[in-house]
């Protein structure tokens, strides 16, 4: 079974950042802003230099 089903176009990694918002809370801490990298190193706990803002659900 050597059927090709997809291509990886890029892998994105990023750090947690804080964004000020004018809603129910004054700021949002998130790791959603990720950027493509030329090389990605996968460890047992995820990609190197990649962070998640909500560790309870990740």
Structure description:
By secondary structure, the protein is an all-beta fold. It has strands spanning 11-13, 17-20, 27-30, 35-37, 42-43, 46-47. The chain is built from no helices and six strands. The mean pLDDT is 88. 0% of the residues lie in helices and 31% in strands. The chain has a domain at 12-47.
What structural keywords apply?
58 residues, mainly beta, two-stranded antiparallel sheet
SSE topology sketch:
Blueprint: E1 11-13, E2 17-20, E3 27-30, E4 35-37, E5 42-43, E6 46-47
Antiparallel strand pairs: 1-4, 2-3, 5-6
Could you give a quick summary of the protein structure above?
This protein has 58 residues and is mainly β. 0% of the residues lie in helices and 31% in strands.
